[in-house]
Amino acid sequence: MNGIRRIAILGAESTGKSWLTQALAGVIQMRGQAVSTVDEVLRTWCDREGRTPQPHEQMGIAQAQAQAATQITQGWVISDTTPIMTAVYSHMLFDDESLYPMALAHQALYDTTLITGLDLAWVADGLQRDGPHVRGPVDTLVRQALDRAGIAYRVVYGQGHQRLNNALLALGLSGEDESARVTRENAQFAINDGRTVWQCNECSDPDCEHKLFTGLLAKR
User: Fold this and answer.
1) What CA–CA distances, in Å, run from 97 to 85, 86, 91, 152?
2) pLDDT tens profile 45-94
3) For the chain, does the N or the C end have fewer beta carbons within 10 angstroms?
């Protein structure tokens, strides 16, 4: 592939955005393509500050999220959320709709926008997530914002590997066969030996979690 292809992963909290971002990147990389991922700036901000942001801090977070994505200029770029999510949370929590114009202008840069469906169980993270009751309203506001701007999107459903294959199909790519899945997952589990980086905070994949912790126990 020449040039750049930007993919946005949007969705309500605890719908596997981070897991899908990393899983897609793993597949595309194993198929010989250059791929970069963009982490969720809001999560990093909350972890650093030990709190959720105030209204006047929302625009800075949205701008930092946009900058992190646009500074990459080649290959595949898969963004774990975009400024749209910051705009939605500002709308919900503070009745502030001022971030939408900036967020939607940035969203137009993406070749494909995927929304993670609400079919995964909600999992608390101790700081950032509010509860399962907010997922429906957040999902609605995301879709409404994209619809207003005429930005097309695909919703990705399914559990674990099925969710990944549905996302690959939405990107016009073929799904993984069983052999490729095992190879990719074994590479990701190499975190136990310090060889690769893998984020589990939004995995939402029980098979993945089971394999990770049984592997740790086996090494004792």
Assistant:
1) 12, 10, 5, 21
2) 988 998 889 999 999 999 999 999 999 999 999 999 999 999 999 999 99
3) C
> What is the total residue count of the chain?
220
| Rounded-to-integer distance, Cα 115 and Cα 145, Å | 12
Give the contacts of 103 (CB within 8 A, at least 6 positions apart): 62, 82, 83, 84, 86, 87, 145
Q: Which amino acid is at 45?
A: W
| Contact predicate 37/25, CB 8 Å | yes
pTM score, two decimals? 0.80
Find the radius of gyration of the CA atoms of the chain.
17
Task: Tell me, yes or no, whether 191 lies in a domain.
Answer: no
* Angstrom distance (rounded) from CA 92 to CA 158: 27
Q: What is the CATH number of the domain that holds 67?
A: 3.40.50.300
- Which residue in the block uniquely carries the two structure tokens 């294959």? 165
Structure tokens of 149? 């701007």
| Residue 165: inside a domain | yes
